[in-house]
Amino acid sequence: MPSLPEAPGSTWARSYDYTARELVRPRSVDDVRDLVLREPGLRALGSRHSFTDLADTAGVLVSLEGFEEPPTMAGDVVRVPGGMRYGELAAWLQERGRALPNLASLPHISVAGAVATGTHGSGIGNGSLATSVTAVEIIDGQGDLVRLESGSPDFAGAVVGIGALGIVTHLDLRTSPTYQIAQTVHEGLTFADLREHVSEILGAAYSVSIFTRWADEPDGSVGRVWAKSRSTAPEIPGTVLASQPRHVVPGLDAAPCTEQLGLPGPWHERLPHFRLDFQPSVGAELQSEYLVPIERAQEAVDAVRSLADRVRPLLQVSEIRAVAADELWLSPAYGTDALALHFTWKADPGGVRELLPDLEQRLPAGSRPHWGKLFTTKDPGAEFPRWDDFKDLVRRFDPDRRFWNAWLDRVFG
């Protein structure tokens, strides 16, 4: 049986207070099915790492944290309960000599929630977290358990499903043998090098992040490069290696961040920026992110730089990454290798919402938002070739709109 109902609370950064009637933690697939058949309005709630009402509902929020079951391995595929956090899954895989190809900045996020929103790490050759999925199991709007495997007609539409098709109870993920990563921080990046060589810098190591505040720092630089390498640390022209650990936000204590200074270690202890047992990032913050076709990287960098005087007063830090193309219908990297422009804002909702329309207008054509973060784009579907196909999929999976909410109404109309 589900746990006793709870007050729904807020997102992890307290950027949004949920308005749902209650939060319930089912303990089994049968519990989830019973909830779907009984309740006219539900939404799956992951680890609360979205920044808006994406996961809210007037009815019942459903958290799968109550599923007390471990992952299971079959060959090189791991079957994972959707509510499990990536940091916990990664440690479990490492104990068995297995690994995932990539992780996001935060290991705190749930597998189902991260996959459903197209969340990603970095690396020109690395797809989003959703590209490791080989099967997904969903309780749909009729209360049926539907299993979709890679290659089936609806699979590519359902993986990045933003919670609109039902409640994802389990996912299968392809794994590889474990591997080592060494992380180095390179300081002194100039804007000229960022602008002219952004794609080359992002391809210099297995996973690369560029951190900037878009305006010149006192030393004349514009930012730092965090390189995560499977072999020799790269050389980033014009930069020097940091001599001590750094936080992604300049000036903050580096203790929450993963091991640096080139010391090799297991993949899951280096690919995220933050350690699982610490609060990630800043905490009191807002976030936005846009993925741009990588061939328009220089244009995108110039667009943000042109707004530096307005961006910097609102900004904690900005991160630039690369994401490999995929064929998942609502993935922001659908059909194109992408440059990801991430913004960690100060907790100033009014100021951020005033800036975002101008920022979005200046970004190159083909830019797509990260679904779990703040954006004001009026018609995101114009940039997704399978948008109408996804809406048809929603009608089939959820004909009574049990999983529909205000966020979907605004975005899909």
Outline the structure in words.
The chain is an alpha+beta fold. The protein folds into two domains: 113 residues, Uridine Diphospho-n-acetylenolpyruvylglucosamine Reductase, domain 3 (2-Layer Sandwich); 200 residues, Alpha-Beta Plaits. Helix content is 21%, strand content 23%. The chain has ten helices and 19 strands. Strands 11, 12, 13, 14, 15, 16, 17, 18 and 19 form a nine-stranded antiparallel β-sheet that branches. The protein has a five-stranded antiparallel β-sheet with strand order 4-5-9-7-8. The longest helix has 14 residues. The radius of gyration is 20 Å and the shape is globular. It starts with 21 loop residues before the first strand and ends with a helix.
Q: What is the molecular shape?
A: globular
Helix content: 10-25%
What sequence of helices (H) and strands (E) makes up the elements?
Answer: EHEEEEHEHEEHEEEHEEEEEHHEEHEHH
Can you summarize the main beta sheet? 9 strands, antiparallel
CATH fold title of the largest domain = Alpha-Beta Plaits
Structural class: alpha+beta
For the record, what CATH class of the largest domain applies? Answer: Alpha Beta
- What is the strand tally? 19
Radius of gyration from the CA trace? 20 Å
